[in-house]
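Problem 12. The chain below contains 224 residues. Write out its predicted structure in token notation.
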Amino acid sequence: MTAPPLLHPLHEDPYLLVFDKPAGLLCVPGRGEDKQDCLSTRAMRQWPDALIVHRLDMGTSGLVVMARGIAMQRALSAAFAERRVHKRYEAVVDGAMPVREDWSLIDAPLMADWPRRPLQKIDPAGKPSVTRWKAVSLLSGEPAATHVLLEPLTGRSHQLRVHLLSIGHPILGDALYGDAALQARAPRLLLHASELGFVHPVTQQDLCFNRPPDFIVSRAISRP
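Solution.
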């Protein structure tokens, strides 16, 4: 069996690591022998004290921070829970969305769709879930598609995917929430965690990481 490739962190210090996770790689092991290769397993081979703090879906690419040791895991987990971490995502969605300077808000509670797990659904009885979004540009070609920025103010499972679907603009390539036509328009889920910012729990340094998605560069963009 071929060994997985070595990880090359964007940031490394004695307390934490920051990676740019590729699409298609799990953050933690899944069920079954074929789902044991993941970001956390690879990281622990190189940094035995590496511990998961937050996750991205398998299909989502982008920035992930991992703690080194239990104390740092607790400190970073608290920062995420208390919304002291800046998170921004970029996506390409179906349809033409209005391009403007101000941000819009999706405030729709989410809960597990138990008969169809792991899917989530909007339900008044669900957990509060809030997402800020802003359309950046319309992309060339047909059917229409839009490049959007997303900032989840809560951290629910599949939040961005379900929220965008709820306003009629599902993410291209979404194999869980999209129909066959939507999936066929992209080779992967076009969702990427492009910005991550927080105060280092030990050094108190302001850390800000930016990693643009490669799927925007590969498409011609037209701005109204």
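Discussion. The two ends are 51 Å apart (CA to CA). Students who got a different answer should revisit the alignment rule from Section 12.3.
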